[in-house]
Design brief:
329 residues, alpha/beta, D-Maltodextrin-Binding Protein, domain 2, four-stranded mixed beta sheet, three-stranded parallel beta sheet, 13 helices, 9 strands, binds succinic acid
């Protein structure tokens, strides 16, 4: 690994992203980590940078990692294909983006299945949760761990206190059938869209609202183009920290073991600090003038009730056993 490249030479966004990376020496295995989030306080940004720092110091001379945030290398629509093609080696997409590869990860999208992030972490540490890391091995994807991001909250261009307030509105969702069904259950219209397009779509009125974590709502400035955010905590956002089997097979056994050990450590660390990052970004939204609405217990009960039918709808494709394990975590 050589010294940092100067930012002055950066000509394109992708080069600008790479300019924050150390230049790799010839002979080092170059590992590209691509993701779609931004800012400095976002839990995925922090985890990805931590992973790169660890690899670049502990495996210096043998492996060199470059991080490309903000969809600068690949966005939502291309990153999984790019991993299979070997154009990128590490990703951490939202668990909601794997519907064309496996239906089982849909369990993470079921509304109100996790009381909070601690329950989600308990589930991911259970035998069923760990098994889901192998749910796409047949495709060539290898799950390295789950990086938590936070609970999700609805925002819109009008106040949302109860689900009927959302009736008739258009909400951006990730490419998840469960999320689409959840929005439909509110009498609203789901619009699947890449993460990089959400701010523009909210600003121009292509959609009326969206659902996301405090960290995404703050770092992507969604709160600036919305009436407010309602603290629904209706769903989890977490990431499938992943690589490809082809990449792992290309490493010699020692390097592979060291790479996997660092990945494991970084995952533990990421999940220890995620709540603090989320709280920081909630406070950042308020400091920047955003509006956050909290629900009364009665209002929350209305959201839970409206979304109840969604679980039954996906029971067959997710598996009743998987749903039971997640709900009981
Ligand atoms: C992410 O946090 O990686 C993106 C989430 C989204 O697409 O809403």
């Amino acid at each position: 690994m050589k010294k940092l490249i100067g930012a002055a030479g950066a000509l394109t966004l992708a080069v600008a992203a790479a300019s924050a990376n150390a230049a790799c020496d010839s002979g080092e295995v170059v590992v590209k980590l691509s993701h779609v989030t931004g800012g400095t306080t976002h839990p995925k940004v922090v985890a990805a940078n931590n992973f790169a720092e660890r690899v670049n110091s502990e495996l210096n001379g043998r492996m060199c990692m470059e991080v490309y945030p903000n969809s600068t290398l690949f966005g939502d629509s291309k990153e999984l294909e790019a991993l299979l093609l070997g154009d990128v080696q590490v990703l951490a997409p939202s668990l909601s983006k794997f519907g064309s590869y496996t239906k089982r990860l849909g369990v993470f999208d079921l509304p109100f299945i996790f009381e909070d992030m601690d329950a989600a972490i308990r589930f991911t540490n259970s035998a069923t949760g760990k098994d889901l890391l192998n749910s796409m091995n047949d495709v060539g994807f290898v799950g390295l761990g789950y990086w938590m991001s936070g609970m999700k909250y609805f925002s819109a261009n009008k106040p949302l206190n109860v689900p009927t307030d959302a009736a008739g509105l258009k909400f951006r969702v990730q490419t998840s059938d469960v999320a689409k069904a959840m929005i439909a259950a509110m009498g609203a219209s789901p619009q699947p869209m890449a993460f990089s397009e959400v701010y523009g779509a909210l600003q121009t009125g292509v959609v009326d609202g969206q659902e996301n974590t405090w960290s995404n709502i703050y770092t992507k400035k969604f709160f600036e183009v919305q009436d407010g955010v309602t603290q629904t905590s209706h769903q989890l956002l977490a990431y499938f920290f992943m690589t490809s089997q082809d990449f792992l097979d290309s490493l010699d056994a020692d390097l592979r073991a060291e790479f996997l050990a660092i990945a494991d450590d970084v995952t533990q660390q990421a999940n220890l600090v995620v709540k603090e990052k989320e709280e920081t970004n909630r406070a950042n939204i308020l400091k920047a003038g955003g509006t956050i609405r909290e629900l009364t217990p009665e209002q929350r009960a209305e959201w839970v009730e409206a979304m109840k039918p969604v679980w039954k709808q996906f029971e067959d494709e997710i598996g009743a056993d998987v749903i039971k394990a997640a709900a009981g975590a």
